[in-house]
Specification:
The structure is a homotetramer. By secondary structure, chain A is an all-alpha fold. Chain A has a single domain (about 10-95), classed as Methane Monooxygenase Hydroxylase, Chain G, domain 1. Chain A contains three helices and no strands. Chain A has helices spanning about 10-35, 40-75, 80-95. In chain A, helix 1 packs antiparallel against helix 2 and helix 2 packs antiparallel against helix 3 (about 80-95). Chain A is elongated. Chains in contact: A-B, A-D, B-C, C-D. The interface between B and C is medium-sized, with 18 and 18 residues.
């Protein structure tokens, strides 16, 4: 692991759950790509895009909750509130 | 092509543009998967997820505009307003 | 009515339905304002904000569907596709 | 103040800032109501709705950040992680 990046140790179980979600999303994107190859009707493609957006959103919530429950809570307990600033910035950027 | 599915003929140019977007999104998803393998920090992963959501949203808008300008307009001109019902239903389901 | 603005004739029933929704939303906003006066807990206020966002979103979808079914369809039938350009622009601006 | 509700003491400055935002949003909703009375064109109404959604979203972010920086941080420091569970639940419900 490079020194340039921040890291987080996750449990094998959490890693597996996150990767399962991402693999499924990657498969859905490939499926949409194939729908374009097959000249499929726009509305049917758009419904699949909507399904991927929901799956990404679910991934986002799982990872965000895990982040708050571990990194943010630990930092606060250690008297370091940088994680709080960073969380608020992240929510500013990502909440629509 | 199976008879079960509705189709739409797109120009070679449009197909290429749509597939370029999807290939990029697929690469981004693989990149996030690798970030999980590399134990990367949650906030850095979440920023990448946000970037994929924007890219999917842009894909969605491009395809939706093309759908309205071609399928929906053509159907209305042909006196068939099914595409209008379907568009309204699609927007009901997908607008958050 | 001023000449500067574009207009649309809506049925008395549609106007009533739209205004009922807006009056309810205005009441909800006043309710949130009162919650701030009463020093109510953040999470309880935020849940109310979420409820207003859903109500506004529902208003948006009702008006957008009505717009597509009337203005957009009529313009296309009259050989004027300006409403199509405008609809696509609106969706570009408002879909998140 | 009733015993039934949870409360939070906010500074006079924060209360004023929150109420200024809410008063502006309430005025915008009344403005949209007037646009319906005046038979204004759908797209012009929809652009105003989009502007209110942005204003509500900004209010939401301001209050959420304040909540995290005060209630959530204080609870964690006091060894009470209920606010963490509640924050995660709130984000689950409200992030689209």
């Amino acid at each position: 692991m490079a020194d340039c990046c921040r890291h987080k140790q996750r449990s094998a179980e959490e890693i597996k759950a996150l990767k399962t979600r991402l693999n499924k999303i990657e498969g859905q994107i490939r499926g949409i790509n194939k729908m374009i190859d097959d000249d499929r009707y726009c509305v049917d493609v758009l419904m699949q895009v909507s399904s991927v957006q929901s799956a990404l959103n679910a991934f986002n919530k799982v990872l965000l909750s895990s982040h708050i429950r571990s990194c943010v809570v630990d930092d606060i307990k250690n008297g370091n509130e940088d994680a709080v600033d960073e969380l608020c910035e992240l929510l500013q950027k990502t909440m629509k």
